Amino acid sequence: MFDLVEILTCPSDLVPVFKFIKNGVYPIIQIGIPILLILMGSIDLGKAVMSSDDKEIKGATSKLIKRAIAAVAVFFVATIVSLLMGLFSSSGATDSDSVGGTESWKDCWNNLD
Fold first, then answer.
1. Among 40, 96, 100, 109, which lies 20 to 30 A Cα-Cα from 73?
2. How far apart are CA 93 and CA 78, in angstroms?
3. 95/10 Cα distance (integer angstroms)
4. Could you read off the pLDDT of 75-102 as tens digits, one per residue?
5. Which domain range does residue 85 map to?
């Protein structure tokens, strides 16, 4: 079911949860949300252009810029989380399943596929 590296570096009861987050949640956060934000901003800008109101166009343009910045920030969430996991990689917990007695959350995260 799980390979030996995952069992030795991850708590066995958390492997399915980590796999779900890494393979299911992060792609949605990293790719889906930025696309949705930019698409919504483009629709707002398109509506404003169709109405031919300069004030509405300026508002929609600023909203699109804010959404694009938010999309870039959301895209880098996974990178930021990986950096933080690298900084705080050792949990300090001991477990009979782990090789050295200390769980390494970064190794666990990186070994999941």
1. 109
2. 24
3. 10
4. 888 778 777 766 766 555 554 544 444 4
5. 4-111
